[in-house]
Amino acid sequence: MYPAPIEAYFAPRTIDGALQCRAEAGDDAMFIAGGMSLMQAMKARLATPRALIDLNEVEELSGLAKGPRGVTVRPLTRYRELAVTTALHGALQAIGDAASTVGDRQVRNAGTIGGSLCWNYVASCMPNVCLCLDATLVLASLERGERGVPINEFLIGPLETARRDDELLVEINFPASKVYGVGSAYRKYGGTVDGLPIVGIAALIEVDETGLCTDARFSVGGILPTARRFDGVGDALLGRSGTPAAFVEAASAAADAIETQTDHLASAHYRKVLIRTLGRDVLAEAHARATGG
Amino acid sequence: MEKTITVTVNGTAYTRTVPLRLLLVDFIRDECGLTGTHIGCTYEGRCGACTVQIEGRAHKSCMKLAVQADGKEITTIEGLGSRDNLHRLQQAFSRYHALQCGFCTSGILMNAVDFLNENINPSEAEVRRALVGNLCRCTGYSHIVEAILAASATRHGLKPVPPPAETEPPP
After folding, report:
1. Residues A224 and A279 in one domain
2. Which of B64, B75, B115 to mutate to test the interface with A (most CBs of A within 10 A)?
3. Going residue by residue through chain B (171 aa), what tens digit of pLDDT does each one get?
4. Are residues A199 and A272 in the same domain?
5. Residue B43 and residue A2: Cβ atoms within 8 Å?
6. CB 3.0 to 4.6 Å from A108: which of A8, A67, A79, B150, for a disulfide?
7. Within-domain flag for A228
8. A285 and A222 housed in the same domain
9. Residue B165 burial (CB < 10 Å; 0-12/13-18/19+)?
């Protein structure tokens, strides 16, 4: 199909300019970033914005910065850039894993991490990965200034987030890692190569100098209502060295605990099988990165 | 509802007043008259036949509004090579029989040229993965993959694996 008529189009060059445009355009205006979800929704007439505020010319919304308090990923950073950067290796490598397997080349050239987070499609990779990596999102509005929202409070349900219509996502912040070794990983399984997954798993593992696990995080995407953390993996891993048996035990605990749904893609049981098997592999990968192995 | 934009396509500036909802692929086809960029899936963003390069990067032109290309440089299949001066990849596609009906070919070429600029010496697996966004209903992709690998090899002065031998049709 074709997009419904659009009454106004803005292409601001700054964050302030974008917020001003939003105020001028009023309700029924939408921000558009890479457009990989919104354009599809507009063509299907699921979204019929009266006005569009195009963020693609806002340079200050793009890029990565490393500081003492952690890593800031700007929301307009494209999948392609996230897939090739070495700045995220180690603790944030799950972002690169996910970005390099989103959609196809053309999608990765256009799609953005911030767009994916704000759209929060149930099977998409970035909400899941950012949940695992404890992101804090900074939302800006003209009237209320900036506020920080932890990712677990940001992701509410299918296509639903804590972002208000007049707010713009301006930063995605990841905490600095203080420990000896830390690694993260992401993998997904779906019906087509690089397509939207039935299940996606992100994991992060921290180890101390002796190789014992000091933190373990695990999150699952592709389940309703939105990506979910399972902190119970710590029971099998904390204070222990990573062994294949421990990864199986942790992933099995996650599969048992997490409620899954049956839909046209897969049964609830199959999703649990995927959580168990993919989960085991992702934990092993994150651990290998944490220990440099 | 309308905006006047200037888009440079294959080095020529096109200034047109277009509806805001006009998709870039229709701007290229209907306003610029460059019909080598195809629509294979009624704007669903699935088939990749409308792939063009915007500022040198492969994009599906049904996934953008024409107004979003204002001030941008676009290359379409018409700007890649000419009948007398085919691009290296077009030569390889011809030599390796990498097309049958040809409908998907322009999109694949525009994607693959960007891919080979990014990955100068790809493996077969990398080539196959680079083609995920382009559907071909005729070839089964084998010859397309061989052609892209051959173009990569000739760029480095290497001798590519020869194309499959011509077989005579049964009498």
Report:
1. yes
2. B64
3. 899 999 999 999 999 999 999 999 999 999 999 999 999 999 999 999 999 999 999 999 999 999 999 999 999 999 999 999 999 999 999 999 999 999 999 999 999 999 999 999 999 999 999 999 999 999 889 999 999 999 998 888 888 888 877 666 666
4. yes
5. yes
6. A79
7. yes
8. yes
9. exposed
Strand partners, B59: B52
**Chain B: nearest CA to A98, how far in angstroms?**
15
Cα-atom radius of gyration of chain A, to the nearest Å? Answer: 19
Handedness of CA B45, B48, B53, B59 (dihedral sign): positive
Q: Do A106 and B48 touch (CB under 8 A)?
A: yes
Query: In angstroms, what separates the C-alpha of A196 from chain B's closest C-alpha?
Result: 13
Would you tell me how many other CB atoms lie within 10 Å of the CB of residue A270? 15
> How many A-B residue pairs are in contact by the CB < 8 A criterion?
84
Q: Does A107 touch chain B (CB under 8 A)?
A: yes
Interface predicted TM-score (ipTM) of this complex, two decimals: 0.93
CATH number, position A171: 3.30.465.10
| Domain range enclosing A230 | 181-291
DSSP for chain A reads --PPP--EEE--SSHHHHHHHHHHH-TTEEEESS-TTHHHHHHTTS---SEEEE-TT-GGGS-EEEETTEEEE-TT-BHHHHHH-STTTTTTHHHHHHHTTSS-HHHHHH-BHHHHHHH--TT-HHHHHHHHTT-EEEEEETTTEEEEEEHHHHEEETTEES--TT-EEEEEEEEPP-SSEEEEEEEEE-SSTTS--SEEEEEEEEE-TTSBEEEEEEEEESSSSS-EE-TTHHHHHTTSB--HHHHHHHHHHHHHHS-----SS--HHHHHHHHHHHHHHHHHHHHHHHHT-
> Which domain range does residue B74 map to?
2-79
Q: Say whether A8 and B58 touch across the interface (CB within 8 A).
A: no
Å between A37 CA and nearest CA of chain B: 9
- Asked if A194 reaches chain B (Cβ–Cβ under 8 Å), the answer is yes
Probe site for chain A from B5, B21, B72, B131 (most A CB atoms < 10 A): B21
Q: Per the CB < 8 Å rule, is B60 touching A56? A: no
